[in-house]
Design a protein that fits this description.
heterotrimer, A alpha/beta (161), B mainly alpha (399), C mainly alpha (370), A: alpha/beta, two-stranded parallel sheet, B: mainly alpha, 8 strands, 50% helix
Chain lengths: 161, 399, 370
């Protein structure tokens, strides 16, 4: 097991649901209710110091996982000081697709979270401006969910003349 | 507050809609501005006009079918996206080390050539929008020469679709090194010309200096990467921090700015063009001979000749095309240094021939996010150089 | 104080003929030659500067005539294009604006001498339409009228970008008019006149050209003139990447062409003023006015000699004007554009104080010389 995983397990304790290392990428899965404290700690602690939130996305495991952990919100963190990376995953249930917003932790999270809402319909609680970003407001559904039919047609919008 | 503004005519704000079809908002983006005279008081950025469902497309095709889509992310430097995606798939397959060295070097060369072309385009567009049309045409000429090189390798200028999982589409053409030498000689002359025309041009300096600045801390918090981050004084380049391809074996410098304003971004980009030329020249000197494709028929199709001669090769052709490369279950994130910053591919495979998820980390998505922060409080005219130096590429930002 | 020389002299017919000929000449020069041809010159010159081939698409039976046919195709295109008036625009003002823009550019030429005085069959021909003794003041007055065209055009279009462009024009033109007037005070002090013909005659001696007597004034004037012309680097009112097209965003067809023409005519006027004030007007260096007339007189006889001298002088003047237009275009195609506040700073904080300094310096030198 990697150094970062050990560190996370040690410091975050029960918040870490599981952890694995694959192809050299260290991953920790963190409980939803402890996520904000965990992310803050990852950013501020001198041993982790993840000052960059490089990427934020979600994965829909529709049909391959139980419904109460259908989605996973995935953070890719990078530390400039230590030059290391960590993947943080937060499982999200289909019935309650909502997690805490990290916009107060990293400014970059703002738009990335809006994109996840746009594409997966996962709400980020406490986000200052939870609107669609790439699609338009009248768009129906969240296209990157696996149960979104790729042949689905969207209703026409715009002025009626 | 609202009432007070209405009573006092001097402080009434002007609402202005900049874009999506505005001459300066190329790549289609919309700025919703509130102006106090010429000063921007409030700025909202709206993107998504070029969204075409990149991820959904990739999830519904085989692993190899995603390559043409990656071309259209940052279409100014398509080979870099190809490379990033190929590296991510190879990481998932666990064959990163088995890619032949010749392919690795050619990939490096293509990455750096496209970086040059992209910087030329970007700087040219910036000068164009500052009114210096002549400088723009010079930049375009240099870019055309660079694109000629890319064209001679893969037959396409813009959307190259050149890299394959485990190798390349084709080898370098005959006499490529000589052609590179010739083009670089011309490009160096051009470079000096740009330098003379712009770097010490007082008007250009006035427009770029102290505009669109961002502090080091903010740049990090906004997840800036690439030239914009380095202009703010942060020493981070994926090529140095996590060397991939052949970057470990070549000698090059990373230019670092100090102020984080548009002029430093310009200087960083100018210097990177020079460094890219250095890298390409070194790669050509060190270029190993040998195969360009991985020796694993389940990853990279056997040659056409084999496919038409041997039964097994033909079966692999069929399998790879119809079912797709079989990638084991897992996930991988690969970071590469794109022209705009870190281009990262996060791939999730559930086994089988199609990606379960194919996420690209678009560098200019993070950069564009901060444009409101950088332009608020400055003049309307400052949006133009800032927007240009951010180098929003619609294809990459909106995917 | 008023000088009546420009009014019809007792022999009415020759004066009338002379006046008509001069007006026709200037009008054809401006509207017939410069306004259309400058569009071609600009394209060709920029192409030359940018390693391009340039305008060469329009052709008749495959003959492109160096792209000159583009003049015809442009004119045709602009004529038949829809004349678009946006909803909510102030229609009368929207119509009026291009006229207000183009007329001052044309009439400013009335006081610029393109030759000296010549005796033809006992009638004195003066190669200037109106020999006003306050010539330069007239030019300033008329040039400031052109501002209204742009401001009204920007306001009447009912478009935020046009309005911003109009505001920028207003501010920029006003600021630079102040400075421009002051930059030329030095010239008036040196030559002791506002009358352009007098200034022209005073520059008969090559070393008494305005450029040698007023080098600082010349540089400042060129900066102001470029700003008045609203072309790069001072094209902030119509900055295409910021304000789309500024005050004429909502103009199309012939009305757009008129704004376009006004810009080119202003450039001709600026070049002509530059030549008249700083580059010896119609004079050939080291050859006096009378000297040329006498030399031609020996060759062709007194009357035809005077005509020959007149033609040579006019040609010299226009050649100088064309040279200046080329230089102005060179500047336009080389430099990026200023920002609004930088233009203002340049006008008020650099050009204006320098112009004032120039006046003081000129005064001191004149005092010392006397």
């Amino acid at each position: 097991m990697g150094r970062l995983i050990d560190l996370c397990k040690q410091k975050l304790g029960g918040a870490v649901l599981s952890a694995h290392e694959q192809h050299g990428d260290e991953t920790v899965v963190i409980r939803k209710d402890a996520m904000l404290t965990a992310l803050r700690w990852l950013r501020d602690d001198n041993d982790t110091k993840f000052d960059f939130m490089m990427d934020l996305t979600a994965v829909d495991y529709f049909g391959t996982r139980p419904r109460d952990e259908r989605f996973e919100v995935v953070y890719h963190l990078f530390s400039l000081t230590h030059n290391h990376r960590l993947r943080v995953k937060i499982p999200v249930a289909e019935a309650d697709p909502a997690v805490e917003s990290a916009a107060t932790v990293w400014k970059a999270a703002d738009w990335f979270e809006r994109e996840v809402w746009d594409m997966y319909g996962i709400v980020f609680k406490g986000h200052p401006n939870m609107k669609r970003i790439l699609l338009y407001e009248e768009f129906e559904g969240h296209p990157l969910r696996k149960d979104y039919n790729i042949r689905k047609r969207q209703p026409l919008i715009g002025p009626e003349n | 507050m609202e009432n007070k503004n209405r009573l006092d005519l001097n402080t009434e704000l002007m609402v202005l809609n900049m874009g999506p079809s505005h001459p300066a908002t190329h790549g289609t983006v919309r700025f919703f501005l509130k102006l106090d005279g010429e000063k921007v008081v409030h700025m909202e950025t709206e993107i998504g006009y070029l969204h075409r469902g990149f991820e959904k497309h990739c999830e519904n095709g085989t692993w190899t079918q995603a390559f043409p889509f990656t071309d259209r992310l940052n279409y100014c430097s398509a080979p870099q996206n190809n490379v990033a995606y190929a590296l991510a798939v190879e990481k998932l397959l666990g064959v990163t080390d088995k890619v032949p060295p010749r392919a690795v070097y050619i990939r490096t060369i293509m990455c750096e050539l496209s970086r040059m072309a992209d910087h030329y385009t970007n700087l040219g567009a910036a000068t164009l929008e500052l009114g210096a049309l002549t400088a723009f045409i010079y930049f375009v000429e240099a870019r055309e020469l660079t694109w000629d090189l890319i064209e001679s390798v893969c037959g396409a200028r813009l959307t190259s679709n050149y890299i394959r999982v485990g190798g390349l589409a084709s080898d370098l053409p005959e006499g490529f090194a000589a052609r590179v030498k010739e083009v670089f000689a011309k490009n160096r002359v051009f470079w000096d010309e740009f330098d003379k025309l712009l770097t010490h041009n007082r008007i250009f300096l006035d427009r770029m200096r102290d505009t669109g600045g961002i502090s080091r801390a903010d740049a990090i918090s906004y997840a800036f990467t690439g030239p914009c981050l380095r202009a703010a004084g942060v020493e981070y380049d994926v090529r140095k921090a996590f060397p991939y391809l052949a970057y470990r074996d070549v000698d090059f410098d990373i230019p670092i700015g100090t102020t984080g304003d548009n002029f430093d971004r310009y200087l960083v980009r100018m210097e990177e063009i020079k460094q890219s030329m250095r890298i390409v020249e070194q790669c050509l000197l060190q270029l190993p001979s040998g195969p360009i494709n991985i020796n694993d028929a389940s990853v990279r199709n056997p040659s056409k000749e084999d496919g038409k001669t041997y039964m097994e090769s033909m079966i692999f052709h069929f399998k790879n095309t119809i079912e797709g490369i079989q990638v084991p279950k897992g996930e991988a994130y690969v970071a590469t240094e794109g022209t705009n910053g870190e281009v990262g591919f996060y791939l999730v495979s559930q086994g089988g021939g199609k990606p379960w998820k194919c996420r690209v980390r678009p560098p200019c998505f993070a950069l564009t996010q901060a444009i409101g922060h950088m332009c608020t409080g400055h003049y309307l005219s400052d949006i133009i150089p800032t927007f240009d130096m951010i180098n929003l590429i619609g294809g990459e930002c909106d995917r | 104080m008023f000088d009546y020389t420009y009014l019809p002299s007792p022999n009415l017919i020759p004066s009338l003929v002379e006046m008509m000929l001069k007006i026709m000449f200037i009008f054809t020069m401006n509207m017939g030659v410069f306004a259309p041809v400058l569009g071609w010159v600009e394209r060709k010159q920029s192409a030359l500067m940018q390693d391009r081939i340039g305008a060469n698409r329009a052709d008749i039976f495959g003959f492109t005539l160096f792209g000159l046919l583009h003049i015809a195709s442009d004119a045709l295109k602009l004529l038949v294009k829809e004349d678009f008036i946006p909803r909510g625009a102030d229609k009368p003002l929207h119509y009026l604006a291009p006229f207000i823009a183009v007329v001052p550019a044309l009439v400013a030429f009335a006081v610029i001498p393109f030759g000296g005085k010549y005796m033809l069959w006992g009638h004195e021909a003066n190669l200037v339409i109106a020999d006003l003794n306050v010539g330069m003041l007239y030019i300033f007055a008329v040039a400031s009228l052109a501002t209204y065209g742009a401001v009204i055009g920007g306001w009447a279009s009912n478009n935020s970008w046009s309005l911003l462009g109009g505001l920028r024009v207003g501010a920029q033109m006003l600021s630079y008019e102040v400075a421009m007037g002051l930059t030329l005070v030095g010239i008036f002090m040196v030559y002791g006149s506002l009358q352009l013909t007098t200034i022209g005659m005073a520059q008969e001696n090559f070393f008494r050209w305005g450029i040698f007597l007023q080098p600082l004034g010349f540089i400042l004037f060129i900066a102001c003139a470029l700003a008045e012309n609203k072309r790069t680097p001072f094209d902030i009112p119509e900055a295409e990447s910021e304000l789309i097209a500024g005050y004429f965003t909502e103009y199309s067809g012939l009305k757009f062409a008129m704004f376009w023409m006004a810009e080119f005519l202003e450039m001709v006027t600026i070049a002509a003023v530059l030549v008249a004030l700083f580059f010896g007007g119609w004079h050939i260096p080291f050859i006096t006015h009378q000297g040329l007339i006498d030399a031609m007189g020996h060759l062709f006889g007194p009357n035809f000699g005077a005509i020959a001298a007149m033609l040579i002088h006019a040609a010299v003047f226009w050649i100088k004007v064309v040279a200046w237009i080329v230089i102005l275009m060179l500047i336009r195609w080389s430099l990026p554009r200023f920002r609004f506040d930088q233009v203002m700073r340049l006008g008020w904080k650099i050009v204006l104080p320098l112009a004032l300094m120039n006046i003081v310096l000129t005064g001191l030198i004149i005092l010392a010389v006397r």
